[in-house]
Amino acid sequence: TLLTPEFLARHRNVPWGSVRISLNSGSAETYERMTGKRHFDRILANLEALCALRDDGRRPFSITLSLVVGKVQMGDLAKFAAIVHRYRTHIVVEPMYDNMRDLS
């Protein structure tokens, strides 16, 4: 949520190497269920700005989206994969080890 277009503009000359974003869902509904917050659309807008910075050609860097897999996210895997594909990011998928709020 902090990588806003304004933040990225202020830090345009930072030599980014790699950025990892824990998206943990493929939809706003799942994100809200996981976090209790309605930030999914804002995160995707910020991701769009981050990808534009990556793609401007000045200083290439990698972006990785991560997903912690629990029973809630299982229905979102195809949507998450579509986001990874659309933004041409790397991917990390990790198992959830705890049964936090009955989500895993």
The value of Rg in angstroms is 14 Å
Average pLDDT figure: 90
Structural class: alpha/beta
Q: Which strand order do you get reading across the main beta sheet? A: 1-2-3
What would you note in describing this structure?
It is a single chain. This protein is α/β, with parallel strands linked by helices. The chain has 4 helices and 3 strands, in the order H-E-H-H-E-H-E. It has a 3-stranded parallel sheet, covered by helices on one side. The chain is elongated and about 40 Å long.
Topology:
Blueprint: H1 5-10, E1 18-22, H2 28-35, H3 40-55, E2 62-69, H4 77-87, E3 90-95
Parallel strand pairs: 1-2, 2-3
Characteristics of this structure?
104 residues; 4 helices
In short:
Helix content is 39%, strand content 18%. With 104 residues, the protein is an alpha/beta fold. The model has no long low-confidence stretch (mean pLDDT 90).
